[in-house]
């Protein structure tokens, strides 16, 4: 079968190679699937660069989330049947950018019938991250103001839909007119093009000087630092990642004086520390998808041979929504 492999670390387009390998056999607690679709995520970029907290052994196949049809199941797997359409996380190093992949049974769930393959492949990482970040960590409530950075990306677009679903007013920050238009299509109340406007001033103006109740920040660096200038009293800043490339330092005296919280979110830890919560989250997301409240917006569908270019475009910040390999 054909699969993309990374045998050395670097930029995705330079280190990803399409090769032929034997089909994977599931081990205990694993299932083998025919890949129907696999969404590109920033962790795929970081793993290619060797900068992610998870570092699979070389060579590995990227593609951390996917939708697939179960081909076979390993020992100690219950509740998953051959032929079932499933979604979830891949079992690295046999990721989703391949004709067949392995999945860990504990993070494999039934795919909602209301979503097609590409949408289902995009429901796991970004939406689970958004759900835990906004609800479990930040306690976002109806009527509050949510500021979402990188609002046109996969993680940001999920946060927008989840924020709107709970009844929050959402301000989305994007880079450029195309991304601004995309954010508007997601239902953002106020769109800020960071190339033309200062999001700090917009947030203050839109909230009467109060600031944002929750900031959802997958960018980091100066974006985080500037967010502290427009955070509300008892506001919460959710640190999701550092897509901007710079890891900020938090001024704790400023958090004390302004009385706001800084919340770290490493969603993957819930799979180890509270897997029941992950399953409950999937059930909630499935219900929201079935009601049409959340729906991953797939902007591009890629053939297998175009995956490396698509992942590189994600790395360069040239994509909107979800870019998905579809077989």
Helix residue percentage: 25-40%
Uncertain spans: none
Look at the helices and sheets and give the structural class.
alpha/beta
Give the helix tally: 12
Mean pLDDT: 95
Characterize the structure shown:
The chain has helices spanning 12-15, 42-49, 117-121, 125-137, 154-166, 177-185, 199-206, 222-227, 252-258, 270-273, 275-290, 307-315; strands at 2-6, 16-20, 30-39, 65-73, 85-90, 100-110, 145-148, 169-174, 190-193, 212-217, 231-239, 261-264, 298-302, 322-326. It has 327 residues and is of the alpha/beta class. α4 (125-137) packs across α11 (275-290). The longest helix is centred in the last third of the chain and has 16 residues, at 275-290. The two termini are 13 Å apart. The model has no long low-confidence stretch (mean pLDDT 95).
Task: Describe the SSE topology.
Blueprint: E1 2-6, H1 12-15, E2 16-20, E3 30-39, H2 42-49, E4 65-73, E5 85-90, E6 100-110, H3 117-121, H4 125-137, E7 145-148, H5 154-166, E8 169-174, H6 177-185, E9 190-193, H7 199-206, E10 212-217, H8 222-227, E11 231-239, H9 252-258, E12 261-264, H10 270-273, H11 275-290, E13 298-302, H12 307-315, E14 322-326
Parallel strand pairs: 7-8, 7-10, 8-9, 10-11, 11-12, 13-14
Antiparallel strand pairs: 1-2, 3-4, 3-6, 3-14, 4-5, 5-6
Helix pairs in contact: 4-5, 4-11
Notable characteristics:
327 residues; alpha/beta; six-stranded parallel beta sheet; 12 helices; 31% helix; globular
